[in-house]
Amino acid sequence: MKIDKRIIPLAIGGLGIGTTEFTVMGLLPDIAKTLQITIPQAGHLISAYAMGVVIGAPILIGYSVKFPPKKVLIAFMILFTLFNGLSAIAPNYTTMLIIRFMSGLPHGAFFGVGTVVASKMAGKGKEAFYISMMFTGLTVANLAMVPLVTYIGHTYHWRLYFAIVAVIGVFALLFLKLWLPNMAANQNTHFLEELKFLKNKQSWLVLAITAIGFGGLFTWLSYITPLMTVISGVPGSQMAYVMVLAGAGMVVGNLVGGIVSDKLGPEKTCALLIFLMMISLGGVFFLSEHQNMAFILTFMCGALSMSIAAPINIMMMKAAPKSEMMAAAFMQAGFNIANAMGAFLGGIPLEYGLPYNYPSLVGVGMTLIGFVISIRYMYLYGTGTSDEKEIEECVSCDQ
Fold first, then answer.
1. Neighbours of 287 (CB within 10 A)
2. DSSP-derived 3-state class of residue 63
3. Calpha distance 134→13 (Å, rounded)
4. What angle do CA 336, 75, 308 make, to 5 degrees?
5. What is the pLDDT of residue 398?
6. pLDDT-derived band of residue 386, with 50, 70 and 90 as boundaries?
7. H or E element in which residue 44 lies
8. Where does the pLDDT of residue 399 fall: very low under 50, low under 70, confident under 90, or very high at 90 and above?
9. What's the pLDDT score for residue 97?
10. Cα(64)–Cα(77) distance, rounded to whole angstroms?
11. Residue-wise burial string across 308-346, b where 16 or more C-beta atoms lie within 10 A, e elsewhere
12. Rounded distance, CA 46 to CA 321, Å?
């Protein structure tokens, strides 16, 4: 299958974003030692970045909707590259905390604009596949860059991690300039106009599916290390290979999710994938004591964790036809809320002394709720063109 070079700059941007977001987790002890803070304090750097994503996505999108998408994406990548470069030289904890928050600001906004640009570059019926191609950068980051950069940061110095991310940002800027096509800006909108999609019940259902249903997988991912080492008996020295296996699943699942979505439709694909998430998390709970099954389930859960990205984003753009970029940005906030909810709720059984396979049981409950919401969504809005007409009428009534 021939790759459209116009999508490559977006994928490189996703590679940089994925590398900076996920590598920090493996380098917290090194960062804590250099900055003379505790590991829990170093964990606040992760929270600061996530907060930047949630806050930055709607604000940056809101103030950039009237500008050409290519210029907007270049501006976002400049911010991303600048603040990751500054992270490499931050002298103390307070400064690092502020810089990590600033680094997160363009994350959701980049994917928000990029999602819409990717769908517009695609031919009819290929929108989900093009979006999945953009997210390939994120999955490749988990497969290859995160383990590699974690090793470099731990072996030499963690500051090299941020320097490498900044270099990736420079390459993304170069290819955005060279290969991303020019698209006209939407001059008939403004910040408050972009937020009107939040009056639409359909949009809230998609966000709920994302935050609750997708959040179920983070109950597994957040505690994968103790799950595999304590329950499955995998030596700690082999956890890097386990994460590569999960990353390989993400790469495969991301592409398959886009292809299936274009064939079945995003609504049916979303419901099917969330149902499979529920089954897989149930498998984690019951079968993780068997090491071979634990490996298979790691790949499956990794695949399912990214397979839903393309169809759920298409659903959101359908629900907000006049606010696509803002809606896509809110989806990034939704994914980060899913991350936080999964980690928090999944940790509750552990606080009561239950084994490390119990967070996945919480995940089964969350994905069950997400599945019920997705079925409700299909009942209310279906998949036909009449639904798009209904959305248009709803937006018109709001105006």
1. 15
2. coil
3. 8
4. 30
5. 39
6. very low
7. helix 39-62
8. very low
9. 94
10. 14
11. bbbbbbbbbbbbbebbbbbbbbbbbbbbbbbbbbbbebb
12. 33
Q: Let me know: does 313 contact 261? Beta carbons within 8 Å.
A: no
CA neighbours closer than 13 Å in the CB half-sphere of residue 355: 13
Q: Residue 193: how many CA atoms within 13 Å on its side-chain side? A: 14
Rg over alpha carbons for the chain, rounded to the nearest Å, is 20
Using alpha carbons, select from 79, 314, 321, 70 the residue that is nearest to residue 189.
321
- Tokens (6 digits) for 328: 């896509």
Task: State the amino acid at position 34 in one-letter form.
Answer: T
Q: Retrieve residue 239's tokens.
A: 């956890």
Cβ–Cβ < 8 Å for 209, 313 = no
Which token pair is 92?
Answer: 């103390």
Say which residue the tokens 């063109």 belong to: 385
Residue partners of 128: CB distance under 8 A and separation at least 6: 257, 258, 259, 261, 262, 266, 269, 310, 311, 314
Query: Per-residue pLDDT averaged across 207-227, rounded?
Result: 88
Determine if residue 4 is left, alpha or beta; phi over 0 gives left, psi from -120 to 50 gives alpha, anything else beta.
Answer: beta
Residue carrying structure tokens 């420079």 = 170
Q: Which residue has the tokens 């996703």?
A: 14
Q: Are 375 and 271 in contact (CB under 8 A)?
A: yes
Q: Which two tokens stand for residue 102?
A: 């600033």
Does residue 254 contact residue 120 with C-beta atoms inside 8 Å? Answer: no
Average pLDDT, whole number, for the chain?
Answer: 87
Could you tell me if 368 and 245 are in contact, meaning their C-beta atoms sit under 8 angstroms apart?
A: no
Q: How far apart are the first and last CA of the chain?
A: 43
Length of the chain: 399
Contacts of 241 (CB under 8 A, 6+ apart): none
* Residue whose structure tokens are 């890097």: 240
- Who's near 235: CB < 8 A, 6+ residues apart? 229
Q: How far is CA 143 from the centre of its chain?
A: 14
Cα gap 280→259, rounded to integer Å:
21
Taking residues 163-170, report their average pLDDT: 97
Kindly state the tokens that stand for 359. Answer: 């967070």
